[in-house]
Amino acid sequence: MAGKSDFGSSVFHRKDFALLPEKFNDPFSYLPCEAVKESASEISAYIGSSDELAEVFCEGKMLGVLVVEKDGKTGYLAGFSGNAGGRNVMEGFVPPIFDLLAPSGIFKTRESEISAMNAGIRKLEESEELSALDSKINEILREESDTIAKYKAFISSEKEKRKRIRENGCDGTVLGRLEQESRFQKAELKRIVRKFKELLEPIISEREKILSEISRLKEERRKASDELQKWIFGQFRIRNFAGETKDINAIFAAENLVPPAGTGECAAPKLLQYAFENGFHPIAIGEFWFGRPSSNEVRCNGRFYPSCTSKCGPLLRFMLKGMEYDPMEHTYETKTEVSGPHIVFEDRWLIAASKPSGMPSVPGKNGLKSMLEWLCELKSSKIFSVHRLDMDTSGIMLFAKDEKTAAGLRKQFEQRFVMKTYHAMTDDAGPYNGLGPGDKGRIELPLCPDYENRPRQKVDYKSGYTAVTEYEIEGIENGSLSIRFHPVTGRTHQLRIHSAHKDGIGVPIKGDRLYGSLSQGCRLHLHASSITFIHPVTGKRTKVEDPSKPF
Fold first, then answer.
1. How many CA atoms lie within 13 A of 132 on its CB side?
2. Catalytically annotated residues
3. Of the candidates 200, 192, 281, which has an alpha carbon nearest to the alpha carbon of residue 241?
4. In which region does residue 264 sit, left (phi positive, over 0), alpha (psi from -120 to 50) or beta (all else)?
């Protein structure tokens, strides 16, 4: 190992910090404090100084730091998600809650048994016998199809002959013979069908035996996998701040959930588990990506991201029980003179209003007053929503005053007749994929929900939905790109991902902590500045702009 520091000599890395937060941060919504960023920087430097570790982590891995205190001494713990280079245990990092990779463990034994089942299934699926049966069946089916097609053509030809004979006139004897020929040909067609069925039946029967055995083995494998997964979760004895201990099965059952594979192996629960087991008091936590940018989950080297919700949601809620922590609120410093919602255009049929950041478009579970509710109260009448903006996004929204107008506007959104323009500022950390003032382009990245990290979306080239954005770089202000976005489609978080992804702008929008922004104390710098549509009543092309400058 080249250039090894003393980082790996202990799991607890002693460090005096200039400033520490008063409360522990919410791992699902936070901006990393200076102590967390300093600790993450040390880990990155340590990995970079080791040829071995640099190779292990270069493909990309979520790492985590937990700033802690014990006996009046401060420092931090480091951890990584899953395993790295086929290893669960590594010097300088906290150990796994339960070591699945222990050579003599039950997991390895049962995993080998399941692997043997996989090999057996694969052997049958790829067997020469099954392949030969499939080929024989296909051969007979082709022959059957050709034979029946030819005989049906013969029957049709004979039918035409009999028709002409009848039209030219014939006696009863001839008519009887013609009828007899017709019955014989129909019966012969049935005999041909029956012959091929008799040929196929024994071959199909042999094939079904093999397929039945494959199905049996797959069901046996499924049960074994389910039992092993349940056993694994039973071995993860999770500690919490209040001093309680439960296994993963019990923690998820308390919320009527089933734990997904990989639960308990992320960096955050590893760090908290080690802290609680060894008498450390947690002060702050952060998880960041190290290595090459991820292609689907929109993660870039050195940027911090919230903990996943599907695996870590129930787990961390249990682990932090009894611990006071500081949830991130939707409070931002803004430069706009207009702090609340306001109307920018109105006629007899519709309203265009500007929504502030942090306000929901429509009523939701969070109890915050929505833009729709604000308008209904202001007008003392029913108002109809026709589209939405993310809660953190500000800017123009269209609303209708009646059902017919609403239907007309919704149809325009569905058919992509509405043109929208957004103004955005990126984080002040380049290199922005080499983009500069005046550059224009088009981003096409297919998107779909990231179910393990809701409400995040992700890029999925296999099953994602087409998302297209056109952009223009307007300038650079204090190291941040000023961008004008023109979304062609309207996918959830489309502009945010198209900005943050390595194949897009390459840097997140300022204030977008969901996709890796490191900007402190500011709102999401994304504003819907104009909207153009065909007025559903007058038929005129109408453009509405929001003159306010919220950032």
1. 4
2. 390
3. 281
4. left
The secondary element (H helix, E strand) that includes residue 135 is helix 128-168
Q: Three-state SS string across 168-233, please?
A: HCCCHHHHHHHHHHHHHHHHHHHHHHHHHHHHHHHHHHHHHHHHHHHHHHHHHHHHHHHHHHHHHH
What span, in angstroms and rounded, lies between the C-alpha atoms of 427 and 437? 16
Largest CA distance in the chain: 120
The DSSP H or E segment spanning 268 is helix 267-277
Give the whole-angstrom CA distance, residue 263 versus residue 277: 19
What tokens appear for 399 in the block? Answer: 């609303």
Render 58-117 in DSSP notation, one character per residue: TT-EEEEEEEEEETTEEEEEEEESS-BTTBS--TTSPPPSS-TT-TTSHHHHHHHHHHHH
Helix H or strand E encompassing 440: strand 440-444
SS3 457: strand
Cis peptide before 550, with omega less than 30 degrees from 0? Answer: no
The torsion angles phi and psi of 486, rounded to 5 degrees, stand at -125, 95
| Token couple for 445 | 């990245």
Q: Peptide bond preceding 431: is omega within 30 degrees of 0, i.e. cis?
A: yes
| Residue type present at position 285 | I
Query: What does the buried/exposed string (b/e) look like for 359-398 if buried means 16 or more CB atoms within 10 Å of the residue's CB?
Result: bbbeeeeeeeebbbebbeeeeeeebbbbbbbbbbbbbbbb
Evaluate whether 298 touches 516 at the Cβ level (below 8 Å).
Answer: yes
- Ramachandran region, residue 539 (left: φ > 0; alpha: ψ -120 to 50; beta: rest): left
Sign of the C-alpha dihedral, residues 462, 468, 474, 480?
negative
CA distance 193 to 155: 15
CA–CA separation, 90 and 265 (whole Å)? 14
Please state whether beta strands 13-14 and 73-80 pair in parallel, antiparallel, or not at all (unpaired): antiparallel
- Tell me how far CA of residue 520 lies from CA of 33, 159, 288, 524, in angstroms: 9, 86, 16, 11
Q: What is the rounded distance in angstroms from the CA atom of residue 28 to the CA atom of residue 366?
A: 16
Q: How far apart are CA 476 and CA 200, in angstroms?
A: 72
CA distance 212 to 206: 10
pLDDT of residue 332: 36
* Residues 60, 543: Cα–Cα separation, whole Å: 45
H helix and E strand count, the chain: 11, 20
Q: What per-residue confidence (pLDDT) applies to 521?
A: 65
460 within 8 A of 445, measured Cβ to Cβ? no
Could you state, in chain order, the average pLDDT of each consecutive group of 10 residues for the chain (551 residues)? 51 93 90 94 92 88 96 96 88 90 70 87 93 94 94 92 84 85 92 94 94 93 88 93 95 93 94 97 96 84 90 94 71 44 94 92 84 94 94 94 95 93 86 84 94 86 93 90 94 94 91 83 89 94 87 79
